[in-house]
Design brief:
single chain; 203 residues; mainly alpha; elongated
Length: 203
């Protein structure tokens, strides 16, 4: 007959096996999310998040890191960073929380306000950031003037592949309700995209 000690010993073994399985699964997940090339031991995702955080001490290094890692690794995570990860509901709830709780949670407004930095980095990749054009077109319609100007500039740097953005850029350039620097950025982007019309599209 099974004694209490044997039963308790078997339960302990089952718990140990489960703990080891969970540990192994955690290591697999960590490996999955941290795969790919790294800069200073950190993947592109980390550096894209650093751009969003807007830490002045880290921003310069983050830009260098993303450019060093290249478009294949960096552009997809920058596209994700350009999107608003924190929804409207989260922003409303965050605003109503006591200050002591807000300091312990991600500030959704920082993420929103720093998206222009993400657009600037995408622009640094030029035509190799062409995969970002659809999300840049969406961002071009956000109310922030700083973001509109940065997105327009990035689209101009991408060049020929940014042709789908021409109608919005044209409307933006002619909209007298915008800040002058937004109109100027839109006009410059239109010129760069048009100037690239006779240049073969990069593959």
């Amino acid at each position: 007959a099974m004694t209490f000690w044997n039963f308790d010993h078997r339960r302990a073994q089952e718990k140990l096996v489960m703990a080891l399985a969970l540990l192994f699964a955690g290591l697999l997940l960590h490996s999955f999310f941290n795969r790919g090339p790294k800069f200073q031991g950190k993947p592109a995702k980390y550096w894209a998040n650093a751009v969003v955080r807007g830490d002045k001490r880290e921003h310069g290094v983050a830009v260098i890191a993303l450019l060093d890692l290249g478009p294949e690794a960096s552009v997809p995570v920058l596209i994700q960073a350009l999107e608003s990860k924190r929804g409207l509901l989260y922003r409303e709830i965050w605003r109503k929380l006591p200050a002591v709780l807000r300091t312990r949670l991600p500030n959704p407004m920082v993420e929103l306000n720093n998206r222009y930095r993400v657009a600037q980095v995408l622009g640094e990749f030029g035509p190799t950031a062409r995969a970002a054009v659809p999300q840049l077109i969406v961002a071009l319609q956000y109310p922030s003037s700083e973001l509109k100007a940065a997105v327009a500039t990035a689209l101009g740097e991408i060049g020929l592949e940014a042709r789908p953005a021409i109608p919005l850029l044209d409307a933006l350039a002619k909209d007298t309700g915008n800040s002058e620097f937004v109109n100027t950025a839109a006009r410059a982007a239109l010129k760069k995209i048009s100037d690239g019309a006779d240049i073969p599209s990069p593959r």
